[in-house]
Amino acid sequence: MNLQKLKRYYTCGAVVQFEEDMYNEFKGHRNLSVEELPPWTQENKNERASRRAVSRSLNAFLNTGKGGTVYLGILDSGVVRGIKMTQFQMDHVVGGLDDLMQRYSPPVTKHRYRVKFVPVFPEDTTEEQRQKRCQKESVDNVDIKDRLRPHQYRSHNFCWCDKDSIAQFNCGLIATDYVVEIKIKPWDPNDVRNQDVACGSLAKVHPYHEDEEGNVYFRRQASLIKSTWPGWYFNNARTTDGDHDIFIEGLGVYNFEKPKDFFYILGSFPIQMYI
Ligand SMILES: [Zn+2]
Prior knowledge:
By secondary structure, the chain is of the alpha+beta class. The protein has one domain (10-237). Helix content is 24%, strand content 17%. It has helices spanning 54-64, 87-103, 127-135, 144-147, 160-170, 232-236, 259-268, and strands at residues 10-11, 24-27, 68-72, 83-84, 113-121, 177-184, 216-220, 223-227, 247-249, 272-274. The strands form 3 sheets. Strands 1, 2, 3, 4, 5 and 6 form a 6-stranded mixed β-sheet that branches. A two-stranded antiparallel ribbon has the order 7-8. A hairpin with a 2-residue loop joins β7 (216-220) and β8. The relative contact order is 0.18. The chain binds zinc ion (ZN). Zinc ion is lined by residues 92, 151, 159-161.
């Protein structure tokens, strides 16, 4: 009997059993930051841009405090397409995400997110073929030295890893398709790693992060809300252990320019909270 744990995978063309909601967002591309969006997706002045950076959704999952997962390679309709990626391109996604999280204000520490590459197989492959393929690690085929080459983040131009992938394709080597699952973990006020960035044990409220453009997003069911200073925190301050709105009395100051200022005041001001 094979006791090895069966690996998870997706089937190309299948529709996933869940929908976009408070905790799940589908994206057909892997443009993480706003600079990675190709200009042709942003150019039509009369209509909404046809593509939005993944960053907004991650920002919203962080700011809602409840976490959530963005699935790259699943279309809005829930159909699995996958994204072809070599090991170098997967490294690029991981490094690009770390780069993006460091650009948030305040920066997001690594323990608050996780990336998984889940393979996508054609419908006509057998379970045995899939499991066999899952056991093979894509890192086995590449040189560690090549993996240390720096990638070009924050750009819509091809990085060396993309050019390498095209060269491989032209030689008949087809990369595996993946769904990239980027999970933002729910805010845990008791995690000691969170205590530096939280706004004090008094409030137990998770921090709010500005994205790479200085915007703050929140998740509302399957959509995003962009908030502006200074009104957002009154509408959005919530406890991390429930859905109760928090009313903060005694702040009396409305001209916070940045969340940092707000947290500074929240951490040092004698406030009263009603939950
Ligand atoms: Zn790269």
